[in-house]
Structure formats: structure tokens, C-alpha cells
Amino acid sequence: MKRHRINYYSHRGRRAHPSSVIFHLGTLILPIGLVFLAGFAAFGFVIAPADIAADATRLAGALGLSLLRLFGAYVLALIIGIPLGLLAESNKHVESALLPVFDVLESMPVLAFFPVIILFFLRSGWLEGAALFIIFFSMVWNIAFSTVGGLKVIPQDVKAIGKVFGFTPLGRLFKITLPALFPPLVTGSILSLADGWNVLIVAEALHAYAPVNSGTGDLFGIGSILVNASTTGNTTELLTAMGLLVVVIAVINLFVWQPLLAKAEQFKFE
Amino acid sequence: MTPEKPILEFNNVKFSYEPNLPEVIHNLTFSLPAGSITVIVGASGSGKSTVLRLAIGLDTATSGTVTRTARTRMIFQSGALLPWATAVENVCVGFTGEHIAEPEQKKRALAALKELGIDHLANAYPRALSGGQRQRVGIARALVSEPELLLLDEPFSALDVQTADTLSQELLNIHAKRTKTMFMVSHSIEDAVVLADTILVFRDGVIAHTVEVELPRPRKRDDVHVLALVTKIKALLPGE
Fold first, then answer.
1. Rounded to a whole number, what is the distance in Å from the CA of A145 to chain B's nearest CA?
2. CA–CA dist B189, B48 (Å, integer)
3. 3-state DSSP call for residue A46?
């Protein structure tokens, strides 16, 4: 009987799994366990199940909204980041002009500009846009640099296929370039989402960044719940929200990134 | 009787990679008659692969003209297969731009793979294939649209001697059956002597010598006449 080796994939490469089911469950159970342990160590108690049940619907709704924001910003980052990367690699002159700009923009502490961004979107009457923009801004450079890096590792011979076999520019894009970019874009997406989660927590707690008297309230989401639970000392809500966040991130890793990373192996050049 | 028009013609071609960089090809003039096998040999970095790139239009001559009168396909050093596509899907890339229905494409691609003895690997991905099998898929991809001119960029350089010998024999069979014009770049003088009708010795950006190979086929690498010609050509190359 053929034995299948089970691999664990991360954005740092493929590793052999020490075991299968236990390790998969471990990626879920261990982080949740750590949250509970941290709660116990800090406050001397664990979360009461009754409180969790009372808050579950509210937290699930908040998490749903946060995921929507994150996903919206990620889609925007793909739509803008991939063409930016393609543009930067279109020729040497454009590359030498654009890459330093990307570097500076990526290094920019976007949260420092958050009050201005909030004011801008406040005037437009679309506060949601401020959160979306700031999450997008934290994600887009990972996507753009992944695209640039991915384009650089496409072998010259493979690039030549497009011309030798008479592909149209669109045919070249969809049949050669984008499939070749799949592995770096998956790893870039993992990093983007990680950055996105970090920024999301503050992006939803607008009151901390909006100018006084602007009348800005928080955006409903897991981030604002975490920040407010922390400032008001609502430990139960804080730990429940943290636990939920960890579960969702672990589930996304298991059911989205792991299959995509495994699939990406097939798209890599040797 | 008028002489047959050459299938590929370089006329006073000059080329440099950048306007401020020195020329790598100076006044290159030669032509390939239809049905011939021509191999260009030269030292590493002498610019011989650039000649192929100019021939297929991947690079543009700084001055002079390159004229092709035939449908042309290229076989690459590495095989240059798409890792996300199976062998048969890679072969179907050869139909790009042609209005052939997908089932017909697949049928012809399978026939091309069968001709090269690897139809049983039609659904395998490139990473599961050996170097020789990958190169065969690359050859099938190039042949499937029936080009008149085949360009080969060091197709055996990544292969062991035995596989290279088998593949060069397969190329000769294809040439005999379909009378393709073949233009190959090689750093291996042995490969050149085994395959070519004409060997162009490329040196300092020009064709320094043209050697007509009149040995009977099939030629073996260890044949005394082949070895003598290899030694003679090596003496024409710099540093040899």
C-alpha cells in the first residue's frame, strides 16, 4: 500500500509533519489553550461559559464584520498590488524609479497618519473607508513586492515561451505570468493578512485616533471589542474575543493557507 | 533553375545588449538552406545563444536584417516547461494562435508524445519527469504545430551523454522523416559533429569558420573520423 507523507506547509517552506491529525488539532488547540492559560495567570480565573454564551452572537457578528473588512482590503491590495508589481518590473528604468518609492511607502508608519485619514473619510461621510484604507495600505506592499520577487524568478526560457509560441499579451499574462506568480502571491497573502490583522485591531477603534470633537465612534468589529474590553477591564469579553480570534486565524490557516501552499508547490520552478 | 530561398538569413547583423555596451555580434552574415542541419559552436559567453534569440525575434538587431521565411519554433536548454501544466498540456502550448479545437489539439499532442516514446507520461507534471523526458516534451511542443524551422538552444547540455545520444538520434529521425531545417547552438563539438551538415564556428562576434561535415550518417561519437573532426574544430576555438 502506498504511504503518503504528510507535510506541513508554511510561508517559509514545506516541512514534514511529525504526525497528522494530532498536529492539525494542535494548531487549533494549542493557541486557544495559551489564551486560557494567559487569562488564568493574569486574572486567576478562566472564562465563565455562561458569559461566553451571552456574548457569542455579538462577538460572531463582530468577527464577521472584521473578516469582511479584512477580505475587502485584501481584494483591493491584490487589485492594486499585482499591477503595481507588474508595472515596476515592466522595464529597468521604471523599476529603478518605482522600487525606492515602494520601499519608502512600505516603511511609512501608516498609523501615524491615521488621524488625517479618519478626517478625510469623515468629511466624505464614509468612516468605514478609513479602516479599509489603512488595512489595505498595510497589505498592498507585501503583494507588490511578492509580485516583483516572483517575476524575477521566472526563468528567461519560460518568459521566452510567450513570444516564441505567439501568445498575445493577455495570453502571456494569464497563461504564464499569473500562474508563475501563484506561489509568491500565496506567501505574500499570508504576510499581508498577518499585517492586516494587526492593523485591523486599531483601525476599528477609531476613537483612539480621531481628533477630539470629531464625534467619531468606533467601528463594530472584533478589533474595537478587544480594545474597549481591555480599556474597560472587561476580562471575560477580552479573553473570549482573543480566543475567537485565535480560532478563526487557525481555521483560516488550516483550511485556506495550507491547501493553497500545498497547491503552490506545483507551480514552482525548479 | 533558381536557387531555393534561404529559410533564415542574417545580413550584416550587429547587436549589443545596451547602446553604451560593446557589440557582441559584428556584421554577422549567413543563411540556412531549407532542410539543412546547422550547428553554431563557440566558447561560453561568445554570444552564440544571442544568435538564436535574434533569429526568433527575442532580441532585435542593432543594425542589419534578420529574415525568416518559415514558421519557427524553439527547443530550450532547460525544456522550459510550465510546471503547473501536465506533459500533454505543455505540448498543447505549441498550438497557441492556431484555430484548432481542444480535443483535436490533445489528440495531436498525444501523437507527438507517442512519437517520442513518452505518451504514457502524458498526464505527468514536469517535476515528475527526468531531464531527458522533459526535453522530449519540449521537442514535442515545438514539433506539434509542424514548423519548417526548428531552433535548438543547447538542448543536450543538461543531459547525461547516453540520453543526449538517444535524443540526438531522435532528432535525426525527425529530420529524416519531416525534412525540418534545424539550427542549433551547442558548446559540445561532439554533438555538433554527430548532428550537423554545417558547423559555424563563432568567435569574437563573427563566424570565423564554416565547416561542412561530409561524414556518412549515422555518426558515432567514438568513430575515428568524428574524433578527428572534433579535434580539428576544437583547434579553431579560442583557448583550445
1. 22
2. 13
3. coil
Q: Which residue in B90, B96, B129 has the most chain A C-beta atoms within 10 A of its own C-beta, making it the best mutation to test that interface? A: B96
CB-based contact A155 B97, cutoff 8 Å: no
Question: Residue A168: which residues within 8 A CB-CB, separation 6 or more?
Answer: none
Q: How many CB pairs under 8 A join A and B?
A: 55
- Is there a contact between B76 and A270 if contact means CB atoms under 8 Å apart? no
Whether residues B93 and A166 touch (CB distance < 8 A) is answered with no
Residue in A155, A167, A268 closest to B96 by CB:
A167
Of A160, A166, A266, the CB nearest to B84: A266
Which residues of A sit within 8 Å Cβ distance of B?
155, 157-158, 160-161, 163-167, 171, 175-176, 179, 182, 266-270
pLDDT tens, chain A, 270 aa long: 445 555 666 656 665 554 555 555 656 566 666 655 555 555 544 444 545 555 678 888 889 999 999 999 999 999 999 999 999 998 888 988 999 999 888 888 888 888 888 888 888 878 889 889 999 999 999 999 999 999 999 999 999 999 899 899 999 999 999 999 999 999 999 999 999 999 998 888 877 777 766 667 788 899 888 888 888 888 888 888 888 889 999 999 999 999 999 999 999 998
CB–CB of B60/B30 below 8 Å?
A: no
CA distance A186 to B35: 48
**Cβ partners under 8 Å of residue B215, min gap 6:** B193, B223, B225, B226, B229
| DSSP 8-state symbol, A269 | -
Name the maximum alpha-carbon separation found in chain A.
71
Adjacent-strand bridge partners of B150: B73, B182
Strands (E) located in chain B: 8-15, 25-32, 37-42, 63-68, 72-75, 149-153, 181-186, 198-203, 206-212
Q: Cβ of B128 under 8 Å from any chain A Cβ?
A: no
**From CA B150, how far away is CA B75, in angstroms rounded?**
7
Angle between helices A178-204 and A127-152 (to 10 degrees): 150
Backbone angles phi, psi at A2, to 5 degrees: -75, 130
Question: Cell 464614509 appears where?
Answer: A126
d(CA B92, CA B108): 8
| Closest by Cα among A207, A244, A217 to A55 | A244
